[in-house]
Design a protein that fits this description.
Number of helices: 8
CATH superfamily: Aldolase class I
Strand content: 15-25%
CATH architecture: Alpha-Beta Barrel
Mean pLDDT: 86
Number of strands: 8
Oligomer: single chain
Helix content: 25-40%
Largest sheet: 8 strands, parallel, barrel
Strand order of the largest sheet: 1-2-3-4-5-6-7-8
Order of helices and strands: EHEHEHEHEHEHEHEH
């Protein structure tokens, strides 16, 4: 089965249209005002109105649960993504699909146990070591690999992941940005 595509941190229409045309299952917008890829929720809604096909999610950091729920409801998001360190019971139970963002090099043994015990999607970044293979294999059916997670050919052959997460970038100027790395991944997926 071919992995699903998930584009995150999208902040412009050009990149969103590319993601949609590439067959993205999910497109995500970052609402953390301190992040370089921040987008105003109303601008995200304008972009969503131009697209057909993908589901949408919001990327949040330390936002309070009610604020996240309000933004998601206002613009019609189906899911949320947040770093593992910000997960709590209130944020888990918003009635939205939840994806946890984690880096392999920074996960504690307690966090690993929690991730294995909870049926939540995980966007995993970072290089994996052989010692992590058993942990990763247990997460595979609900795992999104970050595009920067090392040799993607090896990752795709070795693990049965849900999909690939491709993080957006800022435009060099309106309508222009470098898609060569993303296109390389799409070509690799097409080849099988």
């Amino acid at each position: 089965m071919q992995p699903q595509l998930r584009f995150s941190h999208i902040n412009n229409l050009t990149e969103a249209r590319f993601a949609s045309a590439a067959g993205a299952h999910w497109i995500g917008f970052c609402f953390d005002k301190c992040h370089l890829q921040y987008i105003n929720p109303l601008k995200a809604k304008e972009i969503m109105d131009w697209l057909v096909g993908p589901a949408y999610f919001g990327i949040f950091d330390g936002h309070d649960a009610e604020e996240m729920k309000g933004i998601c409801g206002m613009i019609g998001l189906k899911g949320i993504q947040m770093p593992l360190k910000f997960v709590n019971a209130e944020r888990e139970n918003l009635g939205l699909d939840l994806c946890i963002e984690a880096n392999l090099q920074n996960i504690t043994s307690e966090e690993k146990e929690w991730l294995l015990a909870n049926d939540i999607a995980i966007c995993l970044n970072g290089q994996f070591e052989e010692s992590e293979v058993n942990f990763i294999e247990k997460l595979s059916p609900r795992l999104w690999w970050g595009l920067d997670s090392g040799d993607m050919k090896t990752v795709l052959k070795r693990f049965n992941q849900m999909g690939i997460n491709i993080e957006g970038s800022n435009e060099e100027k309106p309508g222009l940005f470098d898609l060569s790395r993303v296109q390389e991944l799409l070509d690799m997926l097409e080849e099988g």
